Amino acid sequence: MKIKTTLAVTALTLCSGIASAQQGISKDEILIGSIQDLSGPLAGYGKQARNGMVMAIDEINELGGINGRKIKLLVEDSGYDPKKAILAAQKLVNQDKIFMMVGHIGTAQNEAAMPIQFEKDIINFFPLTAARSMYEPFHRLKFSTLPTYYEQIHTSLPKLIRQKTVTKVCAIYQDDDFGQEVLQGTEEGLKAVKLTLTDKASFKRGATDFSSQVAKMQASGCEMVVLGTIIRETIGAIGTARKMGFNPIFLGSSAAYTDIIHKIGGKGMDGLYATMTAQFPYVDDASPAVRRWATKYRTQFNEDASTISVFGYTTVNIFATAMRDAGDRPSTSKFIRAMEITKIPGDMFGAPPLKFTPTRRLGSDESRLSQIQDGRWKVVIDYNAK
Length: 386
What we know:
- By secondary structure, the chain is of the alpha/beta class.
- It is built from 12 helices and 12 strands.
- The strands form 2 sheets. Strands 7-6-8-9-10-11-12 form a 7-stranded mixed beta sheet, with helices on both faces.
- Helix 2 (43-62) packs across helix 11 (307-325) and helix 8 crosses helix 9.
- The chain is globular.
- The model is unreliable at 1-20 (pLDDT under 50).
């Protein structure tokens, strides 16, 4: 009887230990996952985000990892398709058994994947999208770092209007949640300077012809056009306007803050404004720290870094900071508590400090403005400017 009882207790203890084990955490490894667009319309962003993550992980692991554990990153390709993002999330969460989803790109893609993650208590950490749904409604497993597209335009547009003294502001926007956020931010931003939207025109995701939208803006005499566009659409809209002899002030969100715009669009992209936080990491930057970082990135990946690379890099480093604070026996709950009390200062790239609380899951709502001048992004209106 004693032997049977002892065996039963031992078996129960083993089962309890297995049941309480934290998914994605082993004695020597922390397994994290990311879903990127590696083959679709945002493949340029997806590859840069992945590279930034890999660079940070390499540095962390070379120094011994986090509390003796090395980080391992698994990346799945969604092709920027929400349906593929669901399949990718199912694989990472249920098959690969990751500890956390990190830097997943795309609004609709994150919205599709989060229910799969949340069912298994998997945090959605710093998604690569500035949509409000990344932190609202509140969920303990949501952590977002990018100021929303709405807030970016809402706060930056009045500053630019006052500086340029324009009165006719219009909008061209993608007909989806992203575009709607930009449009709503535009409308609210105009209220701050006692203006209303002069005209607007939408387009379907994947559109390549913007002649009708641009013609509508031109006919309305728009002096400034807010763009709810990403990469190809930004280039297409501005390029079409230049060909038509229509040259208003163009303002985009952080979705258009990339060197891909002027590398592909050429000289015609000069003058574009975009909201942003981290500055572009040029290899000849005035900051020695940024220069060293950008040079190292170029050496490792044989291409220049971008702000998306910076996003991937800083995301992993902030993750690592909270993981260290979560202790030698980390869990999802311990990580959450660490994030809620960890002070995250601004960094060498000019990103603002981040602060999370038990009731707040957006680290910062601050943004500033850059402009393409002679083929380079330059900060022109900083955080505290009026």
